[in-house]
Structure formats: structure tokens, C-alpha cells
Write a structure and sequence with these properties.
Layout lengths: L2 H4 L9 E3 L9 E6 L6 E6 L7 H12 L4 H20 L9 H13 L17 H20 L9 E4 L11 H4 L4 E4 L16 H11 E4 L4 E4 L1 H13 L3 H5 L6 E2 L7 E4 L15 E4 L2 H16 L29 H14 L10 H14 L4 H8 L4 H7 L1 H13 L1 H4 L3 H13 L2
Antiparallel strand pairs: 1-2, 2-3, 4-5, 6-7, 8-9, 9-10
Helix pairs in contact: 2-3, 3-5, 7-8, 8-10, 8-12, 13-14
Length: about 425
């Protein structure tokens, strides 16, 4: 059963709840509970409280492509903003012009309604990166309808033979003999800076604030679960959602060989997922021993008896709140982050987040000379270019250090030149 079938009757909307902070009264994003335990999804409702058909058709296409649920929600938010803009300005979705898209960007920044031109200096409603993402989602929706034969958005792209320095895959000149399509309406975003990282000392302080080893009693004091999470993120570079989705069957303890964890794409009650599909990530013996200590503590409090399939339960579960032994929520992790920020104020960056662990891991690997393609595979990037774009500053710093030592690098050149001259003269 498709989402459109679920939404075909008014009564079905009883299972739909509004997402907090949506775009307003005339057009909004709605969270939909699918029947039969099929999980959740999102759709866009217009001022008549009915689904916006063109938007829903595109969102259904995304669901059929099995894109991330968070991506569906993000695209639904963008389309809700677009249809709110259309209703406010009295526009028809399949009769828009390039000028209308330009006005949409202005409206995203200012929020001014028709007939209002503000001369007051105000901050933008959204960051430019958010505006760019919203515009990209709307253009993708129009591209979808163009491919389905709807006469919309045909002037939203142009054919160009020069990509302005954008990355192109190998043999691009063979595959693209007729040029590339580029969006006419684009948002110029500031250049991406270096991703934020934590130093090894700062990561250790975060871990020690959760649990520490008491040499006198020879046991861990504090929350081993919390320490295990931060050590796992810092040592493997996995995303927070991937860590929360780990099951005990995914952790392969070392038995004379190197221990590893498997990142597996599967459904999760809190809708976290392995973004890049399956991969195997090797871990250290220290992390493996900490996991063993954590499992022992779980068994002591009866976690193994609370289920018939302990191997199929999540590694990170509730221990101090109900429902006990239920999968840990991302929101609970961020509550822990807020607490650690207060406890470690002045010792770690105030704005640090779990994703900083991933950036720190990748930066450390690249600085130690690990090839970028190996780092890319470990992080689960679909394309190595993503790794290069995100951590270009690391490789550039390494190259600059090499150039700085150019005297040692070229020290033997003159000797080689004299040797060649002697050979040519026959001496």
C-alpha cells in the first residue's frame, strides 16, 4: 500500500501528527504513521489539509528509491516551503518562471509577504547552506515531473560545456559529448572550511568524564556504556546513527585475530540507519575489551534475560530510564552531550558534537599517512571525492610540509648532474 492510498480518506489523517516548528498554517509538513507497523514517513499538506499531489508524487518516488527517511523529511520541508510561497504569491506550480524562483530565494531569506519591501537590515531566516539545500530539493521535484512528461521547469537548466571547476568523473569527456545540464538558479555558498575536530587529549577527557579505571579496585567507575560510545566513534569514525544501530551480532570479538564491527543497513525503531550500507571496520583490542566489560555489566543487570535473542538487540540501550534495555535514542545522546559540555566547560570546545569524533578520526588517519581511498572506505563514503572535498586541508598541509623541506628533497640533484656530465665526457 502506498502513502497515497493511506491518505485517500479523511479518517486516515487521525494517525498523522504535526512536526514541531513547521512552516505555517497554509502549508505544512505532516508525520504519517504507516499501517501494519510500516514505520513513519512525511508528506506535505496544503491549506485545504489535503496532500499536495505533485509534492506527494515526488516524495513517493523517493520512498520507492529507498532513500533515507531523514532525506524524505528534509525534502518534504523544502517542498512545504515552496508550496507555501506559491500560495502566498498566488502562483500556479506548473506555470512558474525563473523570476519566481529568484523571488523564492528572497522570500526564504526575508520572509516578506507580497507587497512588503523591508528597508531594515535583518539577519537571514535561514543559512545560505540551508537555502541551497531547499532550492535543490525543489528543483529535483521539478526534474522528476519533467521526466514524467509534465511541461514544467524546462527553462530551469542550461547546457554548458564548461563546469566551472566542478569535479567530473573519469572519462567525462567521452560520456558527456553533448555537454552537461546545470541549474540556472543557484545559491552561492561560502567556501567550506576545515571540519571541526577534537584533540586526543580532549577526547580522553570526554571518555574519562563518563567512566574511569580505578587501579586500586581494578574496576571501572562510571558509565561504561557512555565511554564505549565515545571511544567507538573516535576510533572507528562511524556515524552516531550507525553506532546506535549496532547489534551485538555485529561486534566480532577478537579470538587470536583483529576484532571488528559490521555496519549493517537495517530498520531501527528510532529511524537511525547505516547511511552508506554495509562495511567492516576493524577496532583495537582496548576497545574490544571495553565492549566485553560492557556486555558483562549488561548480563549482571539482566539484559540477556529480557529477550530471547540477545545477539539481535542493540548494543547501546537504556539503562537508567524506561523502557529499560530499549534502543538508545539519539536525543538521549545529545542530552548526554549537553551534560558533558557543562562538566567540561573550558576543557573541550563548547560546540562539540558526536560528529566531531568522525572528523577527528579521519584527520588523524590522513595525518598519519593512510591513503585517502582507505580512509574513504573506512568512513563509508560512496565516492572518494567526498573524502577529498571534506578533508582537503589535511592533505594540503602534508604537501606543504613536504615542500618546506625542499632542500633535503633536492639535495642529491646537483651530484646526479655532475655524475651525468662525467659519463658524457668519458671520465
Amino acid at each position: 500500500m502506498s502513502v497515497a492510498d493511506v491518505l485517500s480518506g479523511v479518517d486516515t489523517l487521525r494517525g498523522v501528527t504535526t512536526i514541531a516548528g513547521t512552516v505555517g498554517a497554509c502549508c505544512r509538513v505532516q508525520r504519517l504513521v504507516l499501517p501494519g507497523g510500516g514505520g513513519h514517513t512525511w508528506t506535505v499538506l496544503g491549506s485545504d489539509h489535503r496532500p499536495v499531489v505533485p509534492a506527494e508524487e515526488y516524495l513517493e518516488y523517493l520512498r520507492a528509491q529507498q532513500v533515507s527517511p531523514n532525506t524524505v523529511k528534509s525534502y518534504a520541508r523544502a517542498l512545504a516551503l515552496w508550496w507555501q510561497f506559491l500560495e502566498l504569491f498566488g502562483l500556479v506550480w506548473d506555470a512558474v518562471t525563473l523570476e519566481n524562483f529568484g523571488a523564492f530565494l528572497t522570500w526564504l531569506r526575508t520572509g516578506d509577504e507580497p507587497g512588503v519591501v523591508s528597508i531594515e537590515h535583518r539577519g537571514a531566516r535561514f543559512a545560505e547552506s540551508t537555502i541551497s539545500a531547499r532550492l535543490g530539493a525543489v528543483l529535483s521535484c521539478y526534474d522528476y515531473h519533467v521526466l514524467n512528461g509534465v511541461d514544467v521547469g524546462r527553462d530551469l537548466h542550461r547546457i554548458t560545456h564548461r563546469g566551472g571547476g566542478r569535479y567530473k568523473p573519469l572519462l567525462e569527456h567521452v560520456a558527456r559529448r553533448k555537454g552537461r545540464r546545470q541549474a540556472v538558479i543557484r545559491v552561492r555558498r561560502p567556501g567550506r572550511g576545515a571540519p571541526p575536530i577534537l584533540t586526543p587529549e580532549q577526547i580522553e577527557r570526554i571518555c574519562e568524564a563518563c567512566a574511569s579505571w580505578d587501579p586500586d579496585t581494578r574496576e571501572w567507575r562510571g558509565s561504561v556504556r557512555n565511554r564505549l560510545l565515545w571511544m567507538l566513534l573516535a576510533e572507528t569514525g562511524v556515524r552516531l546513527g550507525e553506532a546506535l544501530g549496532l547489534q551485538h551480532r555485529d561486534w566480532h570479538t577478537g579470538c587470536g585475530d583483529t576484532p571488528y564491527v559490521e555496519v549493517v543497513a537495517r530498520d531501527h525503531p528510532h529511524e537511525v540507519r547505516a547511511k552508506s550500507g554495509y562495511r567492516r571496520v576493524y577496532v583495537s583490542d582496548e576497545l574490544d575489551r571495553l565492549y566485553g566489560e560492557y556486555v558483562w555489566r549488561l548480563c549482571e543487570v539482566g539484559a540477556d534475560l529480557a529477550t530471547d535473542d540477545f545477539d539481535g538487540t542493540c548494543v547501546f540501550v537504556n539503562l537508567d530510564r524506561e523502557p529499560r534495555f530499549a534502543p538508545w535514542r539519539p536525543e538521549s545522546v545529545y542530552d548526554l552531550v549537553d551534560r558533558l559540555r557543562r562538566e567540561l566547560s573550558g576543557q573541550v570546545p563548547q560546540a562539540w558534537s558526536p560528529h566531531w569524533m568522525r572528523h577527528s578520526h579521519a584527520t588523524a588517519l590522513l595525518l598519519s599517512g593512510v591513503p585517502v581511498h582507505v580512509v574513504s572506505r573506512r568512513l563509508g563514503h560512496v565516492d572518494v571525492q567526498t573524502t577529498l572535498n571534506t578533508y582537503a586541508h589535511v592533505s594540503e598541509d602534508a604537501e606543504m610540509r613536504t615542500v618546506a623541506d625542499w632542500k633535503a628533497f633536492t639535495g642529491g640533484w646537483r651530484v646526479g648532474a655532475h655524475r651525468d656530465e662525467r659519463i658524457e665526457s668519458g671520465s
